[in-house]
Design brief:
Distance between the termini: 37 Å
Structural class: alpha/beta
Number of strands: 7
Shape: globular
Strand order of the largest sheet: 3-2-1-4-5-7-6
Radius of gyration: 15 Å
Helix content: 25-40%
Number of helices: 7
C-alpha cells in the first residue's frame, strides 16, 4: 500500500509532475553526475523519474519499489527494458558492489523513520561498487511540504544531518546543495 494521500498521488502521477521532473528536477539533481553502466533507482513510485533515467543510463537500469502495485505497473510499462524489483530499500535483494550508481528522488521523506533511512543509506553503500556514486534529491521540511503530506508517511531528512549520516553509512566524499525548498546530495562510496 502506498504511503501517499490521494492529493499527493494525483500530483505525482500527473503529466505536469512528469514534465517538471524531466525539465527541471532531474537535470538539477543529477547535475555533474553521470549514471553508470549499472544504475539502481530506489523508490520510483509512478515512474516519472524512471522515464528520464531510462534514456540517460548507458547500460542496465534497475528499480527497487516497495509498493507492490507500483512495482507491477512499472513492470507492465517497461517490460524487459528496465529490471523492476519489488522490495524494500532498507534490505535490498541485490549483491554487494553490483551497481556503479544508486539514485533516489523525492522519496526519502517517505521512509518511516530516521533509523530506516540510515539502513537505506547503508544498503545503498553496500550495493555500490567501491568509488560508486549515491545521488538524489528530496524536499526540505516546511509547512507547505507538511500540508501536502497530511495522512502520508512524512519523515523529512534535515540536509544538515545528511553528511554525517552518509559518512556513517560508508561514504567518503559527500556534497549537499540546498536551494529553495529542496536539497540534492551526492556521495562516493569509500574504496
Amino acid at each position: 500500500m502506498t504511503s501517499m494521500n490521494r492529493l499527493h498521488q494525483w500530483i505525482c502521477s500527473s503529466d505536469k509532475w512528469a514534465r517538471g521532473v524531466e525539465q527541471s528536477l532531474l537535470p538539477w539533481a543529477l547535475d555533474g553526475v553521470e549514471p553508470g553502466a549499472a544504475t539502481l533507482e530506489i523508490g520510483p513510485g509512478y515512474g516519472a523519474t524512471t522515464r528520464v533515467l531510462e534514456r540517460r543510463v548507458p547500460g542496465r537500469l534497475s528499480v527497487l519499489e516497495v509498493d507492490a502495485d507500483f512495482a507491477k505497473d512499472l513492470q507492465e510499462t517497461y517490460g524487459e527494458r528496465v529490471e523492476v524489483v519489488h522490495g524494500d530499500g532498507t534490505s535490498m535483494p541485490f549483491p554487494d558492489g553490483g551497481f556503479d550508481t544508486v539514485v533516489c528522488f523525492t522519496m526519502l521523506h517517505h521512509v518511516p523513520s530516521p533509523e530506516q533511512q540510515d539502513h537505506l543509506f547503508a544498503e545503498a553503500g553496500r550495493v555500490l561498487r567501491p568509488g560508486g556514486v549515491f545521488a538524489g534529491c528530496d524536499g526540505c521540511a516546511s509547512v507547505t511540504f507538511r500540508l501536502l503530506h497530511l495522512g502520508d508517511t512524512y519523515v523529512p531528512v534535515p540536509p544538515d544531518t545528511l553528511p554525517r549520516r552518509l559518512r556513517a553509512a560508508g561514504f567518503g566524499q559527500v556534497d549537499i546543495t540546498v536551494t529553495k525548498g529542496r536539497f540534492r546530495f551526492r556521495a562516493v562510496r569509500d574504496r
